[in-house]
Design a protein that fits this description.
The protein is globular and about 55 Å long. The strands form three sheets. Strands 2-3-1-4-6-8 form a six-stranded parallel beta sheet, sandwiched between helices. Strands 5-7 form a two-stranded antiparallel sheet. The protein is α/β, with parallel strands linked by helices and about 240 residues long. The protein has six helices and ten strands. The protein starts with a strand and ends with a helix. The protein is about 30% helix and about 15% strand.
């Protein structure tokens, strides 16, 4: 399994990873292989969180760290060319408005020939090829609701889904929280829970939302470009 980072962002530091493992009490883990640029100074917050939670939740797996200077098209092309470097689970915490993919990758071949619609089509094709090769693709659904960061105040009536989460050929993973008034901290034994944080040990898990007191609202929405799979019809028709 591997955390995937984009646009040549800097990485995590070994000292931060050690502190995380010590404070949370998770089993010790390390990163066996770095692919692409690996610059630890200054450490980058997103990269740091990605590695910390990939290793702690995916316990006992072999951890890789992948960086590309490009975006989804360049990344998928690279994986297809290099047999995915032996990676079988791809974890991506990045995303951007599906309709504005060429803001991030304007020089890519699909953007040059057909804009964001062509970009999404090309990457979705690559996602299918990777899936057929047995590779699991996971992506964050976003942290700004169904309207995303490009319309954070919901000024338009139309949802603006993030990509690659909107692709039907990957698994989008959203954020959850403990519903207010249902949680308990009894029995938390992790070091950080004793003197720095209140750690829930039980409660009702719900979708993360500003309306419920969370700092973010988990993403959503429906693809503008990809045909809707039949198994999604019942859920989508409710909207």
């Amino acid at each position: 399994q591997s955390a995937f980072e984009f646009q040549d962002l800097t990485a995590y530091t070994d000292s931060d990873l050690s502190t995380f493992i010590s404070n949370t009490g998770v089993g010790s883990f390390d990163v066996k292989k770095h692919i692409g640029q690996f610059q630890q100074n200054p450490p980058q917050g997103e990269s740091t969180l990605d590695v910390q939670y990939l290793g702690s939740i995916g316990a006992d797996a072999t951890n890789y760290y992948y960086t590309t200077g490009g975006w989804m098209y360049e990344m998928t092309q690279d994986l297809l060319t290099n047999n995915a470097y032996g990676i079988d689970v791809v974890s991506m915490s990045y995303g951007w408005s599906e309709a504005d993919q060429c803001q991030i990758s304007p020089g890519s071949a699909p953007c040059s020939s057909g804009g964001s619609a062509a970009f999404v089509k090309a990457v979705n094709t690559n996602f299918q090829k990777l899936g057929a090769a047995g590779i699991t693709l996971l992506a964050s659904s976003g942290d700004s609701g169904a309207h995303g960061r490009t319309d954070g105040f919901c000024l338009t009536e139309k949802a603006d889904p993030a990509y690659p989460a909107s692709s039907p050929f990957i698994t989008a993973v959203g954020a959850t929280q403990i519903k207010k008034g249902t949680g308990s901290t009894a029995g938390a034994t992790e070091p950080i829970c004793k003197d720095q944080l209140q750690c829930a040990t039980s409660g009702t898990e719900i979708v993360c939302s500003n309306a419920e007191g969370a700092l973010i609202t988990s993403g959503g929405g429906f693809s503008e470009y990809a045909p809707r799979p039949a198994y999604r019809e019942a859920a989508v028709s409710a909207y």
